[in-house]
Amino acid sequence: MDCVKKMKYVLVSGGVVSGLGKGVTASSIGVVLKACGLRVTSIKIDPYLNTDAGTMSPFEHGEVFVLDDGGEVDLDLGNYERFLDVTLTRDNNITTGKIYQSVIDKERKGDYLGKTVQVVPHITDAIQEWIERVSLIPVDGSTEPADVCVIELGGTVGDIESMPFIEALRQLSYRVGPGNFCLVHVSLVPVLGVVGEQKTKPTQHSVRELRGLGLTPHLLACRSAQALEENVKDKLSQFCHVPAGHILNIYDVSNIWHVPLLLRDQKAHDAILKDLDLLSVAKTPCLEEWTARAAQSDTLTNPVRIAMVGKYTGLSDAYVSVVKALQHASIKCKRKLTIEWIAASDLEDTTAKEAPDSHTAAWNSLKGSDGILVPGGFGDRGVQGKILAAKYARENNVPYLGICLGMQIAVIEFARSVLGMAEANSTEFDKETPHPCVIFMPEGSKTHMGGTMRLGSRRTYFQNADCITAKLYGKSDYVDERHRHRYEVNPNMVEKLEKSGLMFVGKDETGRRMEILELPCHPYFVGVQFHPEFKSRPGKVSAVFLGLILAASGQLKSHLKKLSSSIMISNRRVENGISSAMNGHTNGNGNSSPLRYPNGNGNHARA
Ligand code: GLN
User: What is this structure's pTM?
Assistant: First the structure.
């Protein structure tokens, strides 16, 4: 098992309790290293037995994140993609299920040549091989592997199910040797009692546990409510055998963008880069964009209220990428985002009888919102409530964004209210409906749930460059977005729906599958069959989320006007540039190619 490239590994483990924000810590470490000029990839290890997160309930485990390659993975991969602006693959999420499956497949093929197949060495070898192989996959658009791979080990050190991973990582660290492996252990420093003393004992215990398993932390990342007292750091250093300068403190901050800044201010990069022998090649991280975003997010006061009408409203992790995409868009629109979480079933008439207070409260918050979002979902709970929300948005000119199920809901509502098909439905909820406006897709499976949907990046072609979504995307041809669904708009009902004013402005390459709908006579009524939230980045806001927030804050019209005048100006520039270039050598660099743009460097000017 020789390394092809000398990959540098940063392992992030966790102790004391789960839910410490290990994922955010690990991604923030990646951000700081990236700001030092290094190229960073990441791997998330989930020690559970599921092959992937696809079959796991968002209620229990948070959102299922979907990658370009169709991988259904842990939501932490979303953090990495957003923070590092990379595109990961399904193999960047390792689970016990995947590792055992690969080992058992090999055993069935006879690859172990009669040997007894065991956790050590076969499972532990498979884990190391997987890590080394996947760390080399380029993730940032170039063809080269990254310089550093951040590995996050899910769970808490000492869990039975993470033992083979700990052992594999111990072996890996020994094999790649000092200078190539750095372990950051995330732990908690709680405050107890009225005295308010910061307690180091839980951290001491978890470091002892880690050492007992053969791993030595190079850095500690201590989570705490308030900044750590100096004497607490000294104590941790003394008892955990980690230099005081290597004890990082991530105390509670007002927004997530501060975390990389905290790490940079504490010189986390210097300590890590020293351990990885990379100090000489790294530059000083400045993180200007992150600083501006963190500060801006703190100072926004002008509110925008978005009603999120969903099923798992008790757990915001169930919609974490949607929330992030809304935040990205709100910051861009200089608005302070407030999300009104509405359990869709509370809007239904049955709730009016059984729990009238919840019903009234739900309707009040829907009506008090500036925009309505119906996110993706499965199963029929709350469907009627979502239909009522879409109806309310359509009839009252309230900006609406329907994502996946939210788009299907908009179609059902339109068929019922406008086409007069009172029993119109998706066959997901009513197999016998006389008006199936949403139907099962032939490529799905009804018997096997894992990985059998239409998954991953697919292309949507705009049918009309003049629609709002094409303008917001700044594209007139196509967009690539990620999908996760089994049902689709019934192509046989499209003509009827369009005749009554519901326009399908984006379709797949066959023209039979509806991808984007718009209601042209409405300020902003958009449904998308894909999940745009998975590709939203802090600096690259998703177009349809931007549209929702712009519309909800009364800025959409002026934004579209600005867009069209900047397109006109750039078209004029291009025309002038091309004609002057064609007239001969006038672009100042002696090159008369009509393909050269007039900014003198041959790059396409960005609108
Ligand atoms: N349940 C719907 C389908 O399978 C919508 C899926 C979703 O919203 N992700 O098509």
Answer: 0.89
